[in-house]
Amino acid sequence: MDNSLQTVSVGCAPTPIQYFALIVSSLMSLCKRPESSYGSGFGIGSYVPMTSSERGARDCGGLEEDPTAQVTLSAAAATALDKELMSTGAFSIDQLMELAGLSVSQVVYKVHPPNKGNRILVACGPGNNGGDGLVAARHLRHYGYQPTIFYPKRSKHDLYQRLSKQLEDLDVPFVEDFSKAVKSTDHIIDAIFGFSFSGEVREPFPAVIEALQDAKVPVTSVDAPSSWNIETGPPESGVGSKFNPDFLVSLTAPKPLVKYFKGRHFIGGRFVSTAIAKKYDFEVPEYQGLDQFVEVGSGGQNSE
C-alpha cells in the first residue's frame, strides 16, 4: 500500500502574503458563486473534484483555493479505505456490501419510482461491485419492483451464494441473455466493474457494455461506469468509449473519473466515520434523515 496516497504534504506552509492572497481569492470566489436551492451535501455552486495531490499543491500555495472543490479517491486509496473500514472501523465485508447496495436501491427509487416502470435489470460482475448489485436487487424487490439478474460469472464464495439464494427465495429470475433482457426492462443497474477495474473488458462483458451504451432506458452505474478507468474515465476507443450512464452512485467518496461523467451524481455508503474520512482527506456528506445517499451534482453542477 502506498501511504503517499493517503496523506497530504504539510511541510510547506504558505507565507503570510500567500495566506492573505488565498483568503482574498476565497472571498472573491464566494461572491461570484451562483445561488442554489440545494442545501445539503458538499456546498453550493459548481462541483469540481480535487485529488489529494492537488489539495497538497493548493495548501503549499501552488494551487489557487477553490471553495467548491472536493477530494476524490484513487483506486489505491479506495482499496486502503475499504481495508481500514474492516480493521479500524470493525465492519465486515457483508455489512459494507449491504449498506452500499441499500444506498443504490434508494437512489434508483428516487430517480425511477415504481410508477415509471417497475422492471429493473441488474447486471452483476464477479466481484464486490456485483455483490452490491445483488443487495440492491433484493431491496428493490421489497420496494415493489420486479428485478431481473444477469450474473454470468457467479462467485463460489459463500457470501455471494447467499445473496443469490436470497433473491431466488424472492422469486427473482436470473437470465443468461442480456441483450434480450434489455428489451423488456424499464431501468438498468450497471454493477459489473468497480473502482479496481483496469485493462480490457473480458468476455462475456464486451457485448453487455455495448448493450448498456445503446440502451434506450435509463442506466445507473455503481461506483464507476463499467469499462471506465478509475483515474482517466472512459476508454479512448472500443468497448465503452461512448458509454455514459444517466446516474452514478459513488460509494464512500467520488473517484477521479467523475470529471468525465455527464449525468446525475450521487454519493452513497453511509458508513464512514468522520475520523476515517479525515485521514483520507474527504468530508462525510450531510446525509438527511433516513437517506443513505446524497445528490451532489448533475453534469458537474450541484443539484437543486
Q: Would you mind describing this structure in some detail?
A:
The protein is α/β, with parallel strands linked by helices and 304 residues long. It folds into 2 domains: 3-75, no CATH class; 93-298, YjeF N-terminal domain (Rossmann fold, 3-Layer(aba) Sandwich). It contains 9 helices and 10 strands. It has an 8-stranded mixed β-sheet. Strands 1-2 form a two-stranded parallel sheet. α8 (205-214) links the parallel β6 and β7. α4 crosses α5 (128-143) and α5 packs parallel to α6. Residues 1-68 and 299-304 have low confidence and may be disordered.
Structure, briefly:
This protein is of the alpha/beta class and 304 residues long.
Throw out a few tags for this protein.
304 residues; alpha/beta; Rossmann fold; 2 domains; eight-stranded mixed sheet; two-stranded parallel sheet; 9 helices; 10 strands; 35% helix; globular; disordered N terminus; NAD; YjeF_N_dom
